[in-house]
């Protein structure tokens, strides 16, 4: 009894040797390094496509919202001339308008068209000409009390993406066609992004699963050779568990799961996290900074989940190991009893029944 207690205390005092993250890939060769590089590239691209999807999807929604009247306004220009900065901004926007009308064709300067098939009977001012003449005409309109169509692609009239479209016949046609053009363009971006997502996801999963199987098969052989090369005293003094066959199969399965599945998921979600915050800070940094305050809570919850799952996994592995030892002992005992019974039958001529 005392020897058993001392043995248990020695087992408790024995410290488990920890393995570094790079030690997980100790059985990799050149082909595995290539597969891991391709798998890392695929998983990183796959993780970065989700934030880009929301960017293009949001642009497509804003295109429909913008071009169908949610952000279109008919305004009086003098109401917007409260500062010189706004007037200068409108003059710079007029150059954009000039380029638009230059491709749409020239209409008579200052002509007023009462009624529009697109905007429901409102009066628009049409003016064009060369680029410089158009800017001058636009500046004169800023000093007058005439209505002008202001098309805004942002959060309102004060948006920096203000666009001015004095409508003519050709301009009305182009303006009616623009929603279709931009919607198709953003939809094509989503299609291209989906194809990239498909290829990168397949590359990441296939490469990591393949290298996981290759390295695990090599680890099984190394594990078995290491056990067979041990001295007999190792199994009596240093071995913590005698069920080596179970550990050769179960432990390598855990290693394969870590290399082939979990490593790819970690890289994917890490790149998705980084890409999401980079795009968020470039788009709306105030809202992204507010979201960043929740990250410590998510990290604490994720860490607690990992600790709980690790503890449950260790208990499950120990229970399966004990069950395997009991099954092995029962099998050996049954075999010994069967051997003795058969020997007794043939020596004493006892009937089998």
From TrEMBL:
As for membrane topology, the entry says:
Multi-pass membrane protein
The main location is membrane
UniProt domain ABC transmembrane type-1: residue ranges: 187-330
Q: Highest taxon of the source?
A: Eukaryota
Indicate the secretion signal residues.
none
Query: Which keywords does the record carry?
Result: Membrane, Transmembrane, Transmembrane helix
Please give the name of this protein: ABC transmembrane type-1 domain-containing protein
| Organism of derivation | Brassica oleracea var. oleracea
Q: Upper lineage ranks?
A: Eukaryota, Viridiplantae, Streptophyta, Embryophyta, Tracheophyta
């Amino acid at each position: 009894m005392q020897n058993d207690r001392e043995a248990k205390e020695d087992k408790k005092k024995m410290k488990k040797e920890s393995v570094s993250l790079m030690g997980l890939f100790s059985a990799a060769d050149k082909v595995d390094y290539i597969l891991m590089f391709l798998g890392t590239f695929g998983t990183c691209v796959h993780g970065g496509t989700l934030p880009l999807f929301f960017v293009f999807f949001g642009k497509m929604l804003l295109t429909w919202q913008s071009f169908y009247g949610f952000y279109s306004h008919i305004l009086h220009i003098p109401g917007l001339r409260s500062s010189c900065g706004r007037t200068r901004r409108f003059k710079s926007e007029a150059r954009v308008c000039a380029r638009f009308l230059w491709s749409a064709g020239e209409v008579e300067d200052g002509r007023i068209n009462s009624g529009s098939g697109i905007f429901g009977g409102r009066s628009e001012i049409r003016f064009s000409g060369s680029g410089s003449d158009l800017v001058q005409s636009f500046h004169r309109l800023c000093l007058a009390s005439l209505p002008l169509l202001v098309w805004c692609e942002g959060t309102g009239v004060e948006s920096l993406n203000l666009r001015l479209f004095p409508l003519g016949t050709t301009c009305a046609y182009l303006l009616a066609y623009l929603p279709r053009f931009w919607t198709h363009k953003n939809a094509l971006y989503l299609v291209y992004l989906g194809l990239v997502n498909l290829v990168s996801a397949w590359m990441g999963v296939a490469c990591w699963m393949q290298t996981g199987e290759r390295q695990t098969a090599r680890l099984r052989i190394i594990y078995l050779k290491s056990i067979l090369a041990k001295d007999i005293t190792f199994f009596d003094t240093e071995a913590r568990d005698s069920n080596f066959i179970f550990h050769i199969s179960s432990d390598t399965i855990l290693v394969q799961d870590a290399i082939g599945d979990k490593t790819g998921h970690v890289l994917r979600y890490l790149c998705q996290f980084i890409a999401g915050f980079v795009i968020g800070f470039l788009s709306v940094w105030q809202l992204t900074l507010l979201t960043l305050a929740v990250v410590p809570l998510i990290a604490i919850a994720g860490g607690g989940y990992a600790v709980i799952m690790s503890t449950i996994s260790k208990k499950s592995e120990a229970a399966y190991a004990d069950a395997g030892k009991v099954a092995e002992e029962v099998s050996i005992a049954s075999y010994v009893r069967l051997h003795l019974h058969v020997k007794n039958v043939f020596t004493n001529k006892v009937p089998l029944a």
